[in-house]
């Protein structure tokens, strides 16, 4: 392994050392290591165990760590030369790093972070900004910029960073790699410089889902369990409205991939603004304290503001004394945030804790053990280097509205690349409940290849704006039908579903939902016909088989009904309704 790492750097040295690639377009030098590394070193794994014991699980992999992780004998630099100057070398290595080395991986260096790991932009004037391999003219994202770049440039198999308010997720999105923010508190933060203890999470970058899962299981120290498929995949429609690129560029990819693996019936739509408004009442209480009146902001905006205030408050509590004594030269934007007067009363601190508790409960109740929430990772494509766009209120509000969901709730989130749009990387994020890390990693492993295939297809296709608008309108009408159905207004529901079918006639869910309303009215022939159409469009639509089975039973087609219930059971072996219906009919008619 030592020779492997050495050979890597020898090859780089032979081909690139001392050579700077100049491009007129970028007007900047691109270093041989893309500016990712702050320190090169080598931590070797222990010898392999003797047979018949299995080899170490991470054998053959190499990695880097962001410069917030302690490594014995090295000063942890925290992205600033003044911090490096005023601190002693670490006396022990972070347990997280040790666990990976003992698991068979080789650590080959430390990577650049934003100043004091505070920003999400990835720019550092002291050590220079790492070059984004996926879009060299654009920022790499931060705070764990160098770690993301090291993976994107294929220098390492994976890398470690820290995610407070997007420190893993943003660089993963901007550099076109996979980023994993685990559930808060499931991985030890010992031996890591804190930014905001209630938000900080050790995170991980990887180039492929297999490596992500392999490393993730070592970090999480999870026992073996049977892989489960999601029973609901919720697209947060209001979050997709925040995107600055066409929303169908991402949502259509997820929809197509979900249909292929799990069937269209798994797809659901959610408005998080409304959901959090009703489930997280302490958000408004906090802002009534801070602005002395009722807030007119959306719940997502409030959440973004609370997250930033919390980060600033905890950062100052931890590092304020050092900043006041050393007076480090900081980026103006970071300095403005850190030095802003921020007085938090004990009551406001307690309300913040209540918000975190309510958010975790709200997301856990929404997703349960088998749900995935789908949101854009970032609203904007990666901004250009030196752009002032990153300081605009719109950029900040849209970005943190998305990033604060996992940060405040503490739930786990994976950022997945989906190719390019206008020469910039595109990504999507999957979120699972707190503690659902293995379920999330398993789901990513299942759908990743399909997501990449559909991303290529959607990127190459040219959907007309009219077609996109029709699909969106159909979804809106379907939701009205669902509400009418819940209100037991069967005929009204049928009208809405019929309108949705006229707008988008190849959607199995619309036919299946209309069949459910027909069943309530006793229109069994129409219900059977709608279910048959739904099944022709989506052969994994469990609800369509169940509803057709019910319609056929009521029409006296008992053999066919048994076949429908039995096939629904094949698709979903734990479905009690299918099992009971099939058994009941067999006992009576066979």
Average pLDDT value? 90
Main pleated-sheet profile:
11 strands, mixed
Poorly predicted segments? 1-27
What is the percentage of strand-forming residues? Answer: 5-15%
Side-by-side strand order of the widest sheet: 3-5-4-6-8-7-12-13-11-9-10
What value does the Rg take, in angstroms?
26 Å
Task: Assign a percent range to the helix content.
Answer: 40-55%
Count of discrete alpha- or pi-helical segments spanning 4 or more residues: 22
Shape: globular
- What is the terminal-to-terminal distance? 66 Å
Structural class: alpha/beta
Q: Compute the number of strand runs.
A: 13
Domain Amidase: 55-212
InterPro entries: Amidase_dom, AS_sf, TPR-like_helical_dom_sf, TPR_rpt
Transmembrane segments: 6-23
Keywords: Membrane, TPR repeat, Transmembrane, Transmembrane helix
Care to describe what's here?
With 590 residues, the protein is α/β, with parallel strands linked by helices. 50% of the residues lie in helices and 12% in strands. The chain has 22 helices and 13 strands. The chain has helices at residues 2-16, 81-85, 95-102, 145-152, 169-175, 209-220, 237-240, 248-262, 272-279, 282-291, 299-326, 332-339, 346-367, 393-409, 437-460, 465-486, 490-503, 508-521, 524-537, 542-555, 558-571, 576-589, and strands at residues 21-22, 29-30, 37-43, 62-66, 106-111, 158-163, 178-181, 201-206, 232-236, 267-270, 371-375, 412-421, 424-432. The strands form two sheets. Strands 3-5-4-6-8-7-12-13-11-9-10 form an eleven-stranded mixed sheet, sandwiched between helices. It is globular and about 85 Å long. The relative contact order is 0.09. Keywords: Membrane, TPR repeat, Transmembrane, Transmembrane helix. Residues 55-212 form the Amidase domain. Pfam families: Amidase (PF01425). InterPro entries: Amidase_dom, AS_sf, TPR-like_helical_dom_sf, TPR_rpt. This is Amidase domain-containing protein.
């Amino acid at each position: 392994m030592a020779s492997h790492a050495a050979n890597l750097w020898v090859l780089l040295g032979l081909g690139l050392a001392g050579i700077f690639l100049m491009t007129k377009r970028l007007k900047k030098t691109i270093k041989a290591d893309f500016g990712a590394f702050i320190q090169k070193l080598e931590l070797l794994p222990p010898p392999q165990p003797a047979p018949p014991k299995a080899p170490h699980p991470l054998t053959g992999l190499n990695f880097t760590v962001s410069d917030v992780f302690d490594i014995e004998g090295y000063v942890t630099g925290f992205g600033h030369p003044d911090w490096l100057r005023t601190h002693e070398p670490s006396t022990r290595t972070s347990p997280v790093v040790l666990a990976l080395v003992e698991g068979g991986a080789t650590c080959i260096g430390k990577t650049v972070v934003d100043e004091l790991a505070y920003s999400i932009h990835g720019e550092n004037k002291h050590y220079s900004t790492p070059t984004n391999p996926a879009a060299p003219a654009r920022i790499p994202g931060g705070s764990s910029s160098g770690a993301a770049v090291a993976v994107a440039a294929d220098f390492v198999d994976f890398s470690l960073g820290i995610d407070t308010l997007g420190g893993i997720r943003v660089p993963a999105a901007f550099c076109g790699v996979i980023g994993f923010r685990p559930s808060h508190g499931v991985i030890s933060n010992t031996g890591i410089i804190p930014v905001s203890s209630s938000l900080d999470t050790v995170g991980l970058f990887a180039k492929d889902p297999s490596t992500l899962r392999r490393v993730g299981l070592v970090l999480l120290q999870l026992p073996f369990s049977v892989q489960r498929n999601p029973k609901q995949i919720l697209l947060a429609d209001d979050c997709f409205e925040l995107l600055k690129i066409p929303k169908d560029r991402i949502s259509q990819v997820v929809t197509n991939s979900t249909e292929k693996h799990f069937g269209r019936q798994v797809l659901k739509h959610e408005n998080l603004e409304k959901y959090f408004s009703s489930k997280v009442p302490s958000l408004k209480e906090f802002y009534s304290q801070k602005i002395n009146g009722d807030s007119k902001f959306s719940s997502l905006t409030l959440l973004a503001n609370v997250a930033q205030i919390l980060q600033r408050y905890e950062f100052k509590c931890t590092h304020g004394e050092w900043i006041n004594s050393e007076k480090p030269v900081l980026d103006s934007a970071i300095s403005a945030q850190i030095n802003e007067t921020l007085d938090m009363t004990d009551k406001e601190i307690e309300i913040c804790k209540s918000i975190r508790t309510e958010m975790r409960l709200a997301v856990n109740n929404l997703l349960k053990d088998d749900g995935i929430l789908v949101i854009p990772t970032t609203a904007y494509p990666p901004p250009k280097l030196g752009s002032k766009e990153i300081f605009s209120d719109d950029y900040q509000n849209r970005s943190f509205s998305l990033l604060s969901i996992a940060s405040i709730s503490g739930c786990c989130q994976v950022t997945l690349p989906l190719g390019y749009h206008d020469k910039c990387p595109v990504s999507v994020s999957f979120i699972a409940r707190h503690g659902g890390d293995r379920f999330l990693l398993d789901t990513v492993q299942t759908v990743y290849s399909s997501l990449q295939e559909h991303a290529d297809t959607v990127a190459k296709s040219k959907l007309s704006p009219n077609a996109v608008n029709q699909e969106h309108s159909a979804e809106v009408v379907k939701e009205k039908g669902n509400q009418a159905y819940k209100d037991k207004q069967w005929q009204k529901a049928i009208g809405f579903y019929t309108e949705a079918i006229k707008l988008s006639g190849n959607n199995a869910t619309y036919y299946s939902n209309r069949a459910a309303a027909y069943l309530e009215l006793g229109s069994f022939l129409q219900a059977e016909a709608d279910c048959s159409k739904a099944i022709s469009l989506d052969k994994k639509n469990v609800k369509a088989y169940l509803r057709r089975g019910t319609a056929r039973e009521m029409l006296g087609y008992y053999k066919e009904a048994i076949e429908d219930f039995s096939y629904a059971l094949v698709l979903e072996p734990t479905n009690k309704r299918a099992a009971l219906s099939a058994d009941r009919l067999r006992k009576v008619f066979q």
